[in-house]
Amino acid sequence: MKRGKCGLAFGLAAVLLIVGEPAGGRSRKRGNGVVLAEARRRRPETPSPPLDTGPVGVLQEIEEKDIRTGEKYNYNQALYLSNLFYEAQRAGKLPKDNRIPWRRDSNIADGFLSHHDLSGGYYDAGDYIIFGWPLASATTVLAWGLLEYEDAYTQTGELGHTLATVKWPLDWLLKAHVAPDTLYVQVGDGKVEHEYWGRPEFERKPRPAYKVNATHGGTEPMADAAAAMAAGYLVFQHHDPVYAQTLLFHAQQLFEAALAHPVTFTLSAPFYESSGFNDEIAWAAAWLYKATGTNAYLTQAMEFAELFEPDDAGAFGWDNKNAGVHLLLYKLTKLQKYADNFTKYMSSWLPGSSSSIKRTPKGLAYYMSWGPLRWAANTAFLALLAADFGLAVQPYRRFARSQIHYILGDNGGFSYVVGFGQKGPRAIHNRGASCGRHGCECNNLPSANTLYGALVGGPDEKDMYFDDCHDYKHSECSVDYNAGYQGAVAGLKHLSLMGLLDSFE
Q1: 440: which strand partners?
Q2: Which residues are catalytic?
Q3: DSSP letter at 424?
Q4: What is the distance between the alpha carbons of residues 403 and 359, in angstroms, rounded to a whole number?
Q5: DSSP calls for 303-323
Q6: Which of 34, 185, 324, 376 is the most exposed place for a label (fewest CB within 10 A)?
Q7: Coil, helix or strand for 379?
Q8: What are phi and psi of 417, to 5 degrees?
Q9: Mind listing the pLDDT tens digit for each residue in 237-249?
Q10: Per-residue pLDDT tens over the stretch 242-286
Q11: What is the distance between the alpha carbons of residues 323 and 117, in angstroms, rounded to a whole number?
């Protein structure tokens, strides 16, 4: 898998964030003034003021959440910071309650050249591309964690922020679905965006947008968007019923379009390449059945689930939904075959297995060198869900806790979550975080701004982490990195609230 470069930053609990100009002498590309003027005309809101490009710093105040007795790590703080990360990744017109002082409105003209408003969404990683497929996948995982562990978010005071975290990408997906069989799946040219190292607020050029439809197919992003909207319906059906119904309507249209034009998605290559679409169709059908109770969706989910083998050497993520499909179908049907399929997946991740998935000396289940923490966190999230569904309760919970605690510091005291703990990544591969009063620099010095809550890619196979912005395979972050991690932290918080953290020693 290839991915656009990205990154992070790390700082103290309260840190002076300096806002400044782009690198001295580096030119700013000026865009089409007519495009920007028209984009602003179409939006009734007044854009937020531009960044202060002088030497004045901005103090970002970070809350210190209380830790519950019996918790080794502060799950309240981890959930709070993860929501801050997603807020820092926002594109488009920012809300008045924006909590990230070094971020302002950016790329509000997205979609203008295509005659659609495609502003918003999350920047995928440390660049400024909107990739609709992994965005939708991450949104579904975030929504699943919220549905199963709402008590954790409520107790920590993060329910409102998490609803906003889930709603922001859903709003963009609704904008992107411009016709029953047409979905915009990417904004920004990968090559062009990667050549720009600066603030998103200073991008002044119109950006291309790319779509899939009956002529140019892309089953995977359509199905994943349908799954995200169906999961979003379940999240918002009691908080905002009208919005929830809108999501469900679009989810059903997108699913029908995905079925009608089954074509492997290639448009976002080489950054996101597909291994096949059967798992995405099964995933979307299962979520639509969960949302509607319509048996036809369950039948389709089960039929497509038969088309891929139980995965005993893979990892759940944006391209591979196999394990998630089997687990969700087990929850929906209680059929033993789905439990067996999921157990086969987990057998390669548990300690002592003979799987191809290695373990580092300090205990990280190491799937691949690019972003290894993301894969371990995703599987930890599924393991917690499976245990709650009655499968291998103690082994799965022990595994999940070990992986999340490794991320938070059970590796010699280094936290791989920016701003959590005393030691962690500081030189992050992230354009926005890198921009301070002396310009925007990618090197081995601490980034100017702190991207609180971001999960970095992680260490090498020997638990070594090199704190260097240039090492994007390990010092990057992405919206899909945090999704499973946040759900797993919420799952552990749920166990803490239930008094069960010590029940699987």
Answers
A1: 435
A2: 127, 429, 438, 467, 476
A3: -
A4: 11
A5: HHHTTS---SS---SSS--HH
A6: 34
A7: helix
A8: -110, 125
A9: 999 999 999 999 9
A10: 999 999 999 999 999 999 989 999 999 999 999 999 999 999 999
A11: 35
